[in-house]
Amino acid sequence: MASFNFCKMHGLGNDFVIIDGISQPIDIQSLSIPNLADRHLGIGFNQLLFIYPTKKADVACQIFNADGSEAEQCGNGMRCVARFLHEEKLTDKKSLRIETKAGIMQVLITNYDDIQVNMGNPCFEPDAIPCKANQIKKRYELPLDENQAHLTMAVLSMGNPHAILQVDSILDFPVEKIAPQIARHAFFPRGTNVGFMEIVDPKHIRLRTYERGVGETVACGSNACAAVVSGIQNHSLDHKVKVELRYGTLWIEWDGAKGPVLMSGPAARVFSGSASY
Fold first, then answer.
1. Is the per-residue pLDDT at 101 higher than 90?
2. Contacts of 30 (CB under 8 A, 6+ apart)
């Protein structure tokens, strides 16, 4: 039986296991990711982040959801990867380039409570998101079933797909019932992450997120970016916004044009360990 070393980390409660494929040999495909993600029988995490060498950037990161499916990118995860690389002295850089399935992400470490990720430009093209629409719209009407009214939402990609609904209260809205229906809706061929945004004022929102392949999580960086972008497009939000999550705050900036979205927040180390497989 083989074993591997890992590090458990989180970004505002969105928790990850990082496996270092630079310093140790491991066949990531041989792992049962759903078993490792189980919070009673395994390590427990929202996503597994596997880092390995690449010639295209400082490091490459393969991202797996708790159900074993692969994700394109993860903003909270990239902050954790940056801290891990820096703490483990795998790099002495504070400005890092991390290759993901969605492309190369730039990360800047000011300190471990303030790590900025360049999340790239938002994409609104239906084929690229992807979603089954014939043209770009700022708002889409999505029917769930015959007994419910159509829901209005913004749909965009931050390297991964997002549907954003503006609600009066994130505590009162039936997220548990509605979110899975949207995440698996036929309108989204690859599924989607779903965000429920409550606007406090133009500089402050509250957010709940349901991640495809995971379920509701306490924080999602790319969903926070998508929510702010949708609010700016709708002229409801300023260009720098505080995103209030269950365990803390992210800051999201976007100029509202064709520039990248910048996300800043902390990354925390929980513990290190080893597991057998």
1. yes
2. 277
What is the dotted CATH code of the domain comprising 140-259? Answer: 3.10.310.10
Measure the CA–CA gap between 119 and 45, rounded to whole angstroms: 22
| Cα–Cα distance, 124 to 157 (Å, whole number) | 6
Give the chain's length. Answer: 277
Residue type, 249: T
Q: Rounded to an integer, what is the distance from CA 68 to the centroid of its chain?
A: 16
In CATH terms, are 3-118+266-276 and 140-259 the same topology? yes
User: Catalytic residue positions?
Assistant: 74, 220
pTM above 0.90, yes or no: yes
pLDDT in tens, 44-55: 999 999 999 999
Q: Are residues 170 and 199 in contact, defined by beta-carbon separation less than 8 angstroms?
A: no
CATH of domain 3-118+266-276: 3.10.310.10
Residue 221, helix vs strand vs coil: helix
